[in-house]
Write a structure and sequence with these properties.
25 helices, alpha+beta, six-stranded mixed β-barrel, six-stranded mixed barrel
Length: about 800
């Protein structure tokens, strides 16, 4: 107290001394400093990471020369409110008429098999105009880039390869230029190697000429064809010097009107747009993407505010315990603004330390998340995606730190000094009880307790859901099966049944293989689904039953050693006849049919509106056991596999060890059809686990953040409760000294804290129950209810432990001690 008075007397607390005293306070209260800074750091890291992710997806800066001026062009279907078709005719018209966009080019994103020394690998290929390399302004490492002459009809097939492909498949051979490889069905000559930093247009490692879209200006096009006369294109360019995006948009709109006048049947509802280049890949108008990222940011900002509120409670309790010191400083001439400034400085120092730690955590977590997403998707991320934090993100983090400093410093200071420090000092001198929490802080405490119930419970339930998904029993020996995803070119999908039959014949000739089957989804995978209704039954208020759906071939169940339990299996005639038939699993019978015999029942997709009419009625012809359909309860329905599916999954039964058959499977597929691409070769028991990697990461992240929030909340609640009791020490001592019953005194003291804890636990428990019912369509299990009850007891124990020590000390006071303290 005397030290503070001396400081005020010397320089009336200059800003330098404000921060010096703030640092001393951090050292004086090491536990609060450690827990508070760590909690704020994790909160800021979460907020910064979410902001950076949103920026990288929706508004990135391309790491290219004048990357901010590179734009994308597309057609927008105003009738369907989504991106419309864009073909060669549109590209040629834009190329001929646009003057405000330079280096206009186009690319078609395809996938082809690359064969090097007999080894086949599916790879993403960018069929791109030569102007794409001029746009990027990145010189090749070896050889040359694509030229306009490469796009001419009859020109020999050439390709430019990326740095990582050059290292991995060609062992960094400096003589790779001029080497011939097979790309798809054509022998292709490698003419160049790009540096490691180059991945335009997305994350590609092979570039071939776009032969259907010439980049040279050949004069106006005399004939107009529809926008779908070729494969869909991505069109890009650079704004001409001095031209804004709005000016380029105005010119493109004029061109679009001409196209609509010439081809009203195809272009009346197509509105051409100039957009940031990254929006071609991640469309911010995609409702699900934008909503998901926005909700994630709202959640993370809320988490920051929750953490800040917890630290604010700690800071408030500490400031209230220094009330007499603050009152003396006020009496010696320090104004309210000076005291608020000092407490703000303490909050600013704490949040400043936290933002440094938070930025380091955010970069580490961001890198880990991006690597996980890349591994889970099996594809490289766009070339502008990296774990570096942009300057705008750092500024955002500093802004969050400033807001946190206000919350944990200014708000408690204003509350402490609200009623006048001179009156408070006289109250202390007269034996008053000092500051007491009002209704607002009571509400804050109740909310904090509710949050400490919801966050850990949500993390716990989410973790259980992830573990259950990873360990779900698929109903057969999945480890004995090798799975793969087979993708056919769209033009060849009509031959799916022929290709599958030839694959089956090739596989059957291999020693050690006992069964082969194909489906659009295999057991353990995440299945698509919809809301179904049963003919004759009342439609549930949730628009039908949530049912997972898979399309399988006729040998699917026998290949998986899962015989049909009732009815019959699929027959080739089911597809040929066009009859709608289905086989359901045991969970479908239990949940949807409530134990009734499924054979003969009919089901269909529920219609929601005119744009989503009901599906056709489907006859249930068979019943099988559950085979890892996924979903919240495993309810599943199987349909016959269509004969023209472009993508199927194959499962091959190899009891002796499925992984050893991987290379052979790829070679056999290439023999059947060189354009048939094979992805995701792995034992079938790993398929489900790998699809849960992202959820597993989120589970760990949620557990860490919830643990930090829980620790902060418990400390804040402990500090506030202890402070509340300490403030009433004189009252307790006086009442006991005058003969009041100890238990009545204790009950009177702990009644309000227990009420606050009880209200918070009740509100949190109700939210947990609501989450369980709404997300999992089920009431909490006995185990979950026991968990919530045990957690409630923990919160009560924290509350009581905070009250025990000061109450015991007050109960030992004699009346003379109380009177001497008041004097």
């Amino acid at each position: 107290m005397s030290e503070a008075a001396g400081l005020d007397a010397r320089l009336n607390m200059s800003p330098f001394l404000d921060f010096k005293l703030a640092l001393r306070m951090l050292v004086k209260y090491p536990l609060l400093t450690f827990v508070g800074s760590l909690g704020i750091a994790f909160g800021i890291a979460a907020g910064v990471g979410g902001f950076e992710l949103r920026s990288k997806f929706l508004d990135p800066t391309l790491p290219l020369d004048e990357g901010g001026r590179i734009v994308g062009l597309r057609n927008w279907d105003t009738r369907a409110d989504r991106p419309g078709p864009l073909g060669n005719a549109d590209f040629r018209a834009w190329l001929d008429q646009l003057q405000r966009i330079d280096d206009l080019g186009a690319v078609a994103l395809t996938e082809q098999n690359l064969t090097v020394n007999g080894d086949v690998e599916p790879i993403a290929v960018a069929e791109m105009t030569a102007s794409g390399f001029r746009l990027a302004r990145v010189p090749p490492l070896l050889g040359r880039t694509l030229l306009e002459g490469d796009e001419a009809t009859g020109a020999p097939p050439v390709a430019v390869i990326g740095h990582s492909l050059w290292q991995r498949r060609f062992l960094s051979d400096p003589g790779v230029v001029g080497r011939s490889v097979r790309l798809g069905v054509a022998q292709t000559t490698i003419v160049g190697v790009m540096p490691a930093s180059f991945g335009f247009p997305v994350s590609h490692q092979v570039w071939t000429p776009l032969r259907d879209g010439r980049s040279k200006r050949t004069g106006p096009t005399s004939e107009r064809t529809g926008p779908t006369d070729a494969a869909a294109l991505m069109v890009f360019g650079r704004l001409a010097p001095g031209v804004t995006r709005n000016e380029a948009q105005a010119e493109l709109t004029t061109v679009g009107r001409r196209s609509a006048a010439v081809s009203p049947d195809t272009h009346t509802f197509l509105q051409p747009e100039v957009i940031p280049y990254s929006n071609l890949i991640f469309d911010p108008q995609n409702f699900e993407v934008a909503l998901g990222l926005t909700l994630a940011n709202i959640f993370l900002i809320t988490l920051v505010m929750v953490v800040s509120a917890n630290v604010a409670l700690l800071m408030f309790a500490r400031a209230a315990s220094r009330e007499r010191e603050i009152g003396v400083r006020y009496a010696l001439g320090a104004g309210r603004s000076r005291i608020v400034t000092q407490l703000f400085a303490e909050g600013l120092v704490l949040s400043g330390l936290s933002v440094i730690i938070g930025l380091v955590i955010a970069r580490y977590a961001l890198g880990s998340l991006l690597r996980m997403v890349e591994a889970n998707s099996g594809r490289a991320l766009p070339f502008w995606m990296n774990d570096r934090l942009t300057p705008s993100t750092v500024v955002y983090g500093v802004g969050l730190a400033m807001i946190v400093a206000v919350v944990i410093g200014v708000f408690p200071a204003l509350k402490i000094t609200r009623k006048g420090l001179d009156a408070r000092l006289r109250s202390h001198s007269a034996g008053g009880g000092g500051y007491r929490f009002g209704g607002v802080w009571t509400a804050v405490i109740v909310a904090q307790v509710a949050v400490t119930v919801v966050f850990p419970a949500a993390a716990f339930f989410f973790h259980r859901w992830v573990v259950a998904g990873q360990t779900r029993d698929v109903g057969f020996a999945a480890k004995e099966y090798l799975s793969a995803r087979l993708v056919m070119d769209p033009g060849r999908s009509a031959r799916t049944s022929t290709i599958v039959e030839e694959l089956r014949r090739q596989f059957s000739a291999e020693p050690g293989l006992t069964a082969v089957t194909v489906a659009d989804r295999l057991p353990g995978m995440r299945h698509a689904g919809g809301r179904f209704e049963v003919e004759g039954d009342e439609v549930p208020p949730t628009y039908g039953y949530d049912v997972r759906v898979a399309s399988v071939d006729a040998d699917f169940f026998s290949a998986l050693r899962a015989p049909v339990l009732a009815g019959r299996g699929f027959a080739p005639s089911d597809v040929a006849s066009g009859r709608e038939v289905a086989i359901v699993n045991a969970s479908f019978v239990a949940r949807v049919l409530r134990g009734r015999n499924p054979i003969g029942h009919r089901v269909r997709l529920v219609g929601r509106d005119a744009e989503h009419p009901p599906g056709p009625w489907t006859d249930i012809i068979g019943l099988v056991r559950d085979l890892g359909m996924g979903g919240t309860d495993g309810v599943g329905l199987y349909r016959p596999l269509a004969s023209d599916a472009a993508t199927v999954h194959v499962a091959v039964h190899v009891p002796g060890g499925p992984e050893a058959f991987g290379d052979r499977l790829r070679a056999l597929a290439n023999r059947v059809d060189p354009t048939l691409r094979v992805y995701d070769l792995m034992p079938l028991d790993r398929v489900g686990a790998d699809q849960w990697l992202e959820s597993q990461y989120m589970s760990r992240l949620l557990a860490v953040l919830s643990g930090v929030a829980l620790l902060l909340s418990l400390m804040a609640i402990y500090a506030v409760m202890a402070f509340t009791v300490v403030q009433r020490t004189r009252e307790i001592g006086t009442r006991v000294a005058l003969g009041a019953n100890h238990w009545r005194v204790i009950a009177a003291i702990v009644r309000r804290p227990l009420l606050q804890i009880g209200l918070g636990i009740g509100a949190g428990g109700a939210l947990v129950g609501l989450i369980s019912v709404s997300l999992f369509e089920n009431t909490p299990t006995p185990f979950e209810a026991t968990f919530i009850a045990a957690y409630a007891l923990l919160m009560l124990a924290v509350c009581l432990s905070a009250c025990v020590v000061p109450i015991r000390r007050a109960l030992r006071l004699e009346l003379s001690q109380v009177l001497r303290a008041d004097a």
